[in-house]
Amino acid sequence: MAASLGGGLGAFWAEISSPAAVAALELTFALSLLVVTVNAVTGTLIAWVLVRDDFRGKSLVNALIDLPFALPTIVAGLTLLAVYGPRSPLGVNVSYTRTAIVLALLFVTLPFVVRSVQPVLLELDREMEQAAASLGAGPATTFRRIVLPNLLPAVLSGAALSFGKAVGEFGSVVLISGNIPFSTEVASVHIYKAIESGEQEAAAAVSVVLLVLSLAILVGADVLERRSRRHDA
Amino acid sequence: MVVVNAFGDGIGPVLDALRDPAFLHALQLTVTAVVIAVPLNTVFGVVCALALVRRGSDRGSWLLNSAIGLPLALSPVVVGLSLVLVYGRDGWLGSWLVANGIPVVFSTPGIVLATVFVTLPFVVREVVPVLREIGSDQEEVSWTLGAGPAQTFRRITLPAIRWGVAYGVVLTTARALGEYGAVAVVSGRLAGKTETLTIHVDEQYLRFNEVAAYTTSLVLALLAVLTLVALSVLQPRHEKEVSDVDRRQPGVEALR
Predict the structure, then answer these.
(1) ipTM, 2 dp
(2) Minimum CA–CA partner of B85 in chain A
């Protein structure tokens, strides 16, 4: 942080308001928010299926959820490139596009919401749902008014972790996105390029902005999470 | 997919890639980093967990807890940058270290440091819930019976947390093996000198040695699968550790 202010406040502002930096930051936050929203929904769904349903190969699927944790990000990136890149066996080529970034981010953030919601679902007292059903509530209403409020803190905390990971993600994105400034360059890549070209102050400046904005969003998520806990049954 | 691409040109190039001195050096470097980082963070993790749980919730432990969570929240590139700023040639500590012949950035110590930092939280976070759950009753009994702290730790505490520690160690190892961003910034990426396995993948790919890149990825992917297997074996035992409230013998209650 000290380094970023090394060139004085004026230089700091110049560095972080450089069009490429702003574009990279905007792209990063926009895509991360998108990915986190998708994750909140699909993660909860997956957790639901894993807890409430039984099917063959369930323990395998459960173990696979942790794959993004265990796999090096660069390997994930390379695999994405192999499957969705120029030599894709599926004929799908999204290299050098933002779609590729979204795919990469979805992969690496998959486990967070699932693993956050699973224990809560496991502990959930089914009696509440049964009571609601006996009072005439349909499954949708039961889900919306009984289950969801109880799951919300876990979903939010999982989403916050997802967001933190997505915003800083580097290895899985750097290969397939093409890192084109103003188009497919995310903040972490922008910072990396700045470091590699010796512009440590610029890199530090953008890092500070990234940190401050992420912190703001995480604090916001924490506030939301606390609020949602207060309505706990 | 990785398998297909690795063996795309037959098994010969794969073996060549595995015999490449750059690959072997990267392997050795990665293993070195792991072998240093994992035990270090295991010890540190257990100590920190004990400090966090046994001390109760004062301001100091909140600070410690946040500091430990930091590596998880930071982008790996930012981690690398911080290390360069502190330990680089013009860095705060770096200028002194380099002047005294201890290079950190662009050499092995830097890579090890980066690996240690990013794997800091895992053991702590797995052990803390276990420690919370088991409480300090058994340890207190042990003290009243005259056992010293080391003895108490070895015979009471450690067996109680072993699955949490094991689970944390596996996570730490997986993360140490797979770290890319922080190491990419700190290491300088010199083939045969400061490349880890993950960087080797990238470097080979950038030089259009696809077979080498995919082969290395395959090695890493296999290690990841091993990790998953280890995790799924350890998880039920770890869960039991955390939720096993009936560990207390009836006698302890009588002593209160």
Answers:
(1) 0.81
(2) A3
